[in-house]
Design a protein that fits this description.
mainly alpha; 2 domains
């Protein structure tokens, strides 16, 4: 890790043997570390672009662009590019059988309900909903001219499908139709929150 290495080392020494799911802590810190790295690259490119563009956004809209970029990078690092740091490191696996993709709606989620540990169920359902709520809030702010419930929902769904496809090709997760459903629900919830605050 370039930025959070010392923090992770400290937490690992103190809590690695005491926390059952410490791997999630490692995954989160690694994702944040990579997000900061790529966000800095985005910031440089964005600032250069702003120097030459004639038509500029409002401060609120521009802030939305920066937050949205940080969010997208973070969500990709958490879900897809887990095992790699630089863009030339991932290996696409086109020989992976399509049978690894779960296309039966709620099949795996239903199993998790009756599993001994409910953590996987809450992580898979509520976690997938919550991680797409920021998308539903930020998308209509960044793309204000295309602001609509349908466009936000469809864009959230396609982002989720893209993530599931990359997870399948990179073998960094389980590609599941349930994830697409919960992610899309999160985008819808985020858009409703956006509309609520906009009216106020």
């Amino acid at each position: 890790m370039l930025f959070f290495g010392p923090l992770y080392s400290f937490l690992a020494k103190q809590y690695a043997t005491n926390i059952n799911h410490f791997a999630l802590v490692k995954l989160t810190l690694l994702a944040l570390d990579k997000t900061v790295f790529y966000f800095l690259i985005f910031a440089v490119i964005r600032l250069i672009w702003l120097l030459f563009v004639r038509r500029r956004r409002s401060i609120k809209s521009e802030a939305g662009v920066w937050i949205f970029a940080f969010y997208l990078i973070l969500i990709l690092m958490l879900t897809t590019f887990r095992d790699t740091y630089f863009p030339w490191q991932p290996n696409l696996n086109f020989s992976r059988p399509l049978s690894d993709v779960n296309l039966i709606f709620m099949k795996e989620t239903w199993k998790m309900i009756y599993a001994p540990s409910r953590l996987d169920f809450f992580y898979n359902s509520f976690g997938n909903v919550l991680c797409f709520v920021p998308f539903g809030i930020l998308f209509p702010i960044v793309f204000s001219k295309k602001e609509s419930f349908l466009k936000t929902t469809i864009s959230g769904m396609f982002l989720s499908i893209g993530i599931e496809t990359l997870q399948f090709l990179l073998m960094t997760g389980v590609s599941d139709i349930d994830d697409v459903f919960f992610n899309t629900c999160g985008a819808i919830l985020g858009y409703l929150i956006y509309i609520l605050f906009k009216k106020r």
